[in-house]
Design goal:
single chain; globular
């Protein structure tokens, strides 16, 4: 028996509208690049096109597209998903999804505690 594959989930119209409102400070190439990443693939999936191809698709120069991706990553709008050779591929980041990144936990602070159960001796 095989496990059922989950249906890919794209941003809904309401989620896309919320993204546009969160991104109201972005303009030009930055906004175009972000919207491409938001609409090209299901949520959580990386866009497997090269940045230059995405830039061409949305009508910005390769240099502008590259600068935009750098700014979007720095702002949390995009997150690096994987690297293949010297190419980096990205997916939507926490700012684009409207979530706050998890806070860093100091190294000396315990993440959890473990309690051992006593067993009866036979």
């Amino acid at each position: 028996m095989t496990a059922a594959m989950a249906e890919p989930m794209y941003l809904t119209a309401q989620e896309l509208n919320a993204l546009l409102l969160r991104a109201r400070g972005l303009q030009g190439a930055n906004l175009r690049m972000l919207l491409y990443y938001a609409t090209a693939v299901p949520v959580g999936e990386p866009v497997s096109l090269l940045q230059k191809d995405i830039a061409d698709a949305v009508g910005v120069s390769q240099a502008s597209g590259s600068r935009s991706v750098t700014k979007l990553v720095e702002g949390g709008w995009l997150a690096e998903s994987y690297v293949a050779g010297h190419y980096r591929f990205y997916r939507l980041g926490p700012a684009a999804l409207g979530v706050t990144p998890e806070q860093d936990v100091p190294e000396d602070e315990a993440l959890a505690s473990v309690h051992h159960l006593r067993t009866r001796e036979a």
